[in-house]
DNA sequence: GAGCTACTATCCTGACGGGT
DNA sequence: ACCCGTCAGGATAGTAGCTC
């Protein structure tokens, strides 16, 4: 995935979930839209270098969107969660996800038939059972281990219950953790942030819901981020049974 | 003060209506 | 039938305002 043209700035503070004030290199201030509803632990600290895109939209009150955070060690984190779905779909298209290589048709944001909710991705291919997949973006990292969620999330608990239900109905059901943070070498659910979610994820795995975690690579032109792509799967650690 | 509701901003998809 | 524009729904957590 190629990024739109990005510009750098220094984060002043994030507020009201969707907004962030930044300081531009010329010293002026700008308010950005922040397309991440999570807690953004570790990637939204005042003083962080961030990269943003400009949609040039005349209808948006804040036409610029916060895309990346650059950590002190130079690692990049994509905080725009909408990129996760696109990355996952691109990876499937490019045959980078062998577990899903057998599907020809991809539909996004489809109704699952359960409680009027929607599933991120539906994969189909003729007589094969349809495959429902929820894509989760992972930006929280602790010692090279990607963690999800970064806060208590009843919404994601609901998604897991739906996937379990879909699997019990005979469909293939998948949770796809999309590592948007450079340096992820493994993945585990965050018991600290949401023990209920962690328990449910393990229950889902035990019942046959498939769980995959993928790491990404950022492309650069010098220091300038130009794009990113999912590269390889990383192990999913079942930490719940030990707690 | 506690609890509830509406609002905040944005994007994406699907549904729907109107015009060609 | 097809294209285009518009609107609703879903998702999110903090905050303000309202009621009890």
UniProtKB/TrEMBL annotation:
Species per Swiss-Prot/TrEMBL record: Actinobacillus delphinicola
Residues of the SfsA N-terminal OB domain: 12-79
GO molecular function: DNA binding
Gene3D superfamilies (alphabetical): 2.40.50.580, 3.40.1350.60
Family, as annotated: Belongs to the SfsA family.
Domain Sugar fermentation stimulation protein C-terminal intervals: 82-220
Annotated protein name in UniProt: Sugar fermentation stimulation protein homolog
Source species, domain of life: Bacteria
A Pfam entry, by short name: SfsA
